[in-house]
Design brief:
single chain, mainly alpha, two-stranded antiparallel sheet, 2 strands
Length: about 160
């Protein structure tokens, strides 16, 4: 960017331009692939890193697709990014993690005024709390001598 006296927007316009084969821009695309792969690795989604498709997903209800980095049409125009199927699968998996985190937080009383009953009325597809959240809740109750006062209408632990 500095060598070209270009800003971030102009630089990324070149990243997303399939006709641009400038070595610095090609390197920036490669770096983004590595960042994407590191993020996928951090989530433990090894199946998405296996271009052969032989690694099964950790969750058997999920599908696996190669990341398929390249130039793809998006709502923002042509972008250098992961392929549509992989992008959709990643978003679905992130949404699933978000829903689980919310279910766990509600179970632990971390959303003032939201009981599990209210949360399930609003979000019928809310997953059950994870075993870890159930264990934490039991530990919280045990630390208070088994008392669950404060649960009532607010859903809070205290």
């Amino acid at each position: 960017m500095l060598a070209r006296s270009m800003g971030l927007t102009a630089t990324y316009n070149l990243v997303h331009d399939p006709d641009c084969q400038d070595q610095g821009i090609v390197e920036l695309r490669r770096i983004h692939e590595e960042i994407d792969k590191a993020a996928i690795e951090a989530y433990g989604w090894h199946d998405l890193l296996d271009d052969s498709g032989k690694t099964p997903p950790a969750n058997p209800t999920r599908e696996t697709f190669p990341l398929g980095h390249g130039f793809h049409e998006t709502d923002q125009g042509t972008r250098y990014t992961v392929g549509l199927l992989a992008r959709t699968e990643i978003i679905d998996r992130l949404r699933e993690l978000n829903h689980q985190a919310y279910a766990d937080e509600v179970h632990l009383g971390q959303h003032k005024g939201v009981t599990e009953k209210k949360a399930r009325e609003k979000h019928p597809d809310l997953p059950p709390p994870s075993p870890e959240a159930i264990r934490k809740r039991k530990d919280q109750l045990a630390a208070r001598g088994g008392s669950d006062f404060g649960e009532g209408a607010e859903g809070a632990l205290f």
